[in-house]
């Protein structure tokens, strides 16, 4: 068994090189797909490159985390290793904070600076007079400066319909996950499973209603990626958040499987805590999205 003075050094592993190849192919495929869309190419191998990279990443994650779980269950990790994992998760979530901070920064830059400049405020007076003298600043931007080329959306998404429902779902999921955590600390495994199942169901329901919202936005409101900066920022922010919800739901589902297998103890369950931290972070980001994308 490991002790405070020991530090586990793992054996050589194939997973880092597989992760590098998978990440390279995933990003390469994504870049090729975007270039093909810009060039109007219909038949391409880009999506195959993307899928191969994604499958390699999934295989790597399954195998690498499986090794970590096995090592932890074998008692190879000390308290020092536990602190290392916690700091690693902290910095990972911090990087995610910076990522969404950049996306929110883009939204605020467009709303507070770019759109008013194009309408003639500040240093944008000359651009306004020469290019788009009829353009008026508003947000959400329904009429673009060149509305013939980029036709704006017909209407905005109603914040008190599906977005409000999704907000309630994610807030409820944070509550159920907290209850699951308290149950784990109390060694009540039945309650842990019940509250975890409820959390995963709420997360999946969120994704379902977000998909329904996208369908409505595309087909009924004309809100697409080609609808100008409002459509671009809307799908950029909500789309990346949806991807994070998907990842978080997968993490929690894996925690549910581990609890079912008898993993975790009342005083030793960092894997569960890490997934909980990530889910709560995703929930907080959605509250910001609901306020600044839908309401304000």
**What would you report as the Rg, rounded to the nearest angstrom?**
23 Å
Helix content: over 70%
Which residue ranges are poorly predicted, with pLDDT under 50 across at least 5 consecutive positions? none
Largest sheet: none
CATH topology of the largest domain: Four Helix Bundle (Hemerythrin (Met), subunit A)
Give the helices and strands as they follow along the chain.
Answer: HHHHHHHH
Question: Count the strands?
Answer: 0
- Could you give me the name of the CATH homologous superfamily of the largest domain? Cytochrome c oxidase, subunit III, four-helix bundle
Tell me what the CATH architecture of the largest domain is.
Up-down Bundle
Question: Which band does the percent of strand residues land in?
Answer: under 5%
Distance between the termini: 55 Å
How would you describe the shape?
globular
Q: Whole-number average pLDDT?
A: 89
User: Structural class, from helix and strand content?
Assistant: mainly alpha
Q: What is the CATH C-level name of the largest domain? A: Mainly Alpha
Briefly summarize what is shown.
The protein has 296 residues and is mostly helical.
């Amino acid at each position: 068994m490991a002790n405070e003075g020991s530090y586990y050094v793992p054996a050589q592993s194939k997973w880092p090189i597989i992760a590098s190849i998978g990440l390279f192919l995933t990003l390469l495929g994504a870049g090729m797909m975007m270039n093909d869309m810009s060039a109007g190419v219909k038949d391409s191998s880009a999506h195959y490159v993307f899928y191969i990279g994604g499958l390699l990443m999934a295989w790597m994650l399954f195998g690498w985390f499986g090794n970590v779980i096995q090592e932890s269950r074998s008692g190879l990790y000390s308290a020092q290793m536990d602190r290392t994992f916690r700091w690693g998760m902290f910095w990972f979530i911090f990087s995610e904070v910076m990522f969404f901070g950049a996306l929110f920064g883009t939204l605020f830059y467009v709303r507070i600076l770019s759109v008013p400049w194009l309408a003639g405020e500040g240093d944008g007076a000359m651009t306004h007079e020469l290019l788009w003298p009829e353009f008026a600043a508003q947000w959400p931007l329904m009429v673009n400066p060149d509305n013939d080329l980029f036709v704006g959306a017909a209407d905005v998404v109603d914040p008190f319909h599906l977005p409000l429902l999704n907000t309630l779902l994610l807030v409820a999921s944070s509550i159920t996950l907290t209850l699951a955590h308290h149950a784990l600390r109390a060694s009540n495994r039945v309650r842990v499973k019940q509250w975890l199942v409820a959390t995963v169901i709420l997360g999946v329901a969120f994704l379902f209603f977000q998909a329904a919202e996208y369908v409505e936005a595309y087909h009924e409101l004309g809100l697409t990626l080609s609808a100008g900066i409002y459509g671009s920022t809307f799908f950029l922010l909500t789309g990346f958040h949806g991807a994070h919800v998907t990842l978080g739901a997968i993490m929690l589902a894996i925690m549910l499987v581990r609890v079912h297998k008898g993993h975790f103890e009342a005083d030793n369950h960092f894997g569960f805590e890490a997934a909980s931290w990530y889910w709560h972070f995703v929930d907080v980001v959605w509250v910001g999205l609901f306020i600044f994308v839908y309401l304000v």
